[in-house]
Design goal:
Elements lengths: L3 H6 L1 H11 L5 H31 L5 H29 L20 E6 L12 H7 L3 E2 H8 L5 E2 L1 H19 L4 E4 L3 E3 H6 L17 E3 L4 H6 L5 E3 L5 E10 L18 E11 L3 H21 L4 E5 L11 E9 L4 E12 L1 H6 L2 E3 L5 E3 L1 E10 L1 H9 L7 E2 L2 H7 L3 E2 L9
Parallel strand pairs: 4-8, 7-13
Antiparallel strand pairs: 1-10, 2-3, 5-6, 8-9, 9-15, 10-11, 11-12, 12-15, 13-14, 16-17
Length: about 425
């Protein structure tokens, strides 16, 4: 959430940001409601002052006037409550202001590549896509997954399970060595935390809700942002560097017909997520944004996967983000890069809603800045690992960084008698 004072004082900047984002929002309505709200608050305060003054000196003759004044105040307070509810609703719909370095565009087609690493592998044999590899190596059961969980349901099996555990452990250990505190975060989260984390009301159609007012987390970022809700930290505690593992759930609303084969786009997946709370300085956020992105790049490099880093255009920028990088990993069967990681600067957009503050050495209290970035997401990353490391004999080479967790260096086809 942006500060309303900032919005009032930077109306032209907000108008420009809305145009760049191609986001439809009635800024004038918000400002009109805000002005009416402030005038009404002043009126109510004046009436309360008048009531307090009159109650000290009133006579029997003034009793009727006092009753009338009390009724007027009650009516104005009821009106103010409705206006404040409308103001709060509108404030939740104001997106963050993109950084000047974010390229303008309408969609992900306007994202800009800023660097790449590794060369796409050249195969001297007919390659298989990840769905075929999963099937041939007996690593997944999609038919029974659909029977049990419905559309996009899946069971991972055999080395796909071991590979997933290896990836989580590798990412966790890597980031712990970088000074991150490890967490397993809850998957069930209160609706209010989703609102304060900047995910609701915008993403409601993409979330799973329970009957008792809880939602299934779409990423560990959400519960971890709620971890310090309504707290005042000390400046010397910052930055807070957390790495959290969590089951994650998304309806993938609007993705019907996309990636229906295999495990690239699923409703239930696991994520290891990086979260940082830092001082409320733009350059501090920029420093950590680059560092978080570097950590994820080093993880992907260790997996021996060619990738590129792109900066997301204004039309592909999440609602609460100031700036975002995506890491896209090479997919041989599709001859293109696909998104595997997202790294975002949020500034105080989340922390203002969550009331996460810190007391500076100067004694002033400020809202912290927040950042987040994927460390690893499974089973999506298996898509690229299997395809990039496939061998001519139908096996898949395990990246060296994962071999110590797997206890082997290759996934080989099973004989028919061992297939379940």
């Amino acid at each position: 959430m942006l500060d309303i004072k900032f919005i009032r004082e930077n109306t032209d900047l907000l108008k420009e940001a809305l145009i760049k984002r191609h986001y439809n929002f009635d800024l004038k309505k918000l400002l009109d409601v805000d002005e009416y709200r402030r005038n009404l608050m002043t009126e109510v305060e004046n009436l309360r002052g008048q009531q307090n003054k009159s109650s000290k000196t009133f006579t029997e003759a003034d009793l009727a006037k006092l009753r009338e004044l009390k009724e007027t105040i009650q009516n104005k307070e009821a009106e103010l409550k409705k206006v404040e509810e409308e103001f709060d609703r509108l404030m939740l719909l104001v997106p963050n202001v993109p950084d000047p370095t974010v390229p303008e565009g309408r969609s992900d087609e306007d994202n800009v590549e800023i660097r790449s690493w590794g060369e796409p592998p050249k195969f001297n044999f007919p390659i298989k896509d990840h769905h075929t590899l999963l099937t041939d190596l007996d690593l997944v059961d999609l038919e029974r997954g659909t029977k049990v969980s419905g559309f996009r349901g899946y069971f991972l099996k055999n080395e796909a399970v071991l590979l997933s555990f290896a990836l989580w452990q590798f990412a966790m250990e890597y980031l712990i060595n970088k000074g991150f505190t490890p967490f397993i975060s809850p998957a069930l989260v209160k609706e209010q935390i989703f609102i304060e984390a900047g995910k609701l009301p915008q993403l409601r159609d993409d979330l799973y809700a329970t009957d008792d007012g809880l939602f299934l987390a779409a990423t560990a970022e959400i519960p971890m942002m709620g971890y310090h809700e309504d707290e005042i930290l000390k400046e010397e505690e910052l930055p807070k560097k957390y790495v959290a593992f969590s089951p994650s759930y998304r309806r993938e609303a609007g993705s019907h017909g996309k990636d229906e084969r295999g495990i690239f786009r699923v409703h239930e997946f696991m994520k290891v997520e990086q979260i940082i709370l830092c001082k409320a300085e733009h350059q501090e956020s920029v420093k950590w944004h680059e560092e978080l992105t570097q950590y994820s790049e080093e993880i992907v490099q260790a997996l021996e996967l060619p990738y590129r880093v792109i900066i997301n255009s204004t039309g592909d920028l999440p609602f609460g983000a100031v700036k975002m990088y995506d890491i896209e990993v090479w997919v041989p069967s599709e001859k293109r890069y696909r998104e595997s990681h997202s790294s975002s600067i949020i500034h105080d957009f989340q922390t203002r809603r969550l009331k996460i503050r810190y007391k500076g050495v100067d004694g002033k209290t400020r809202f912290a800045h927040s950042l987040n970035n994927t460390a690893i997401a499974t089973p999506r990353i298996l898509h690229s690992i299997l395809e990039n490391h496939q061998q001519a004999n139908g096996s898949v080479k395990i990246p060296q960084a994962l071999q110590k967790y797997m206890g082997r260096d290759v996934i080989t086809p099973r004989s028919p008698k061992n297939v379940v």
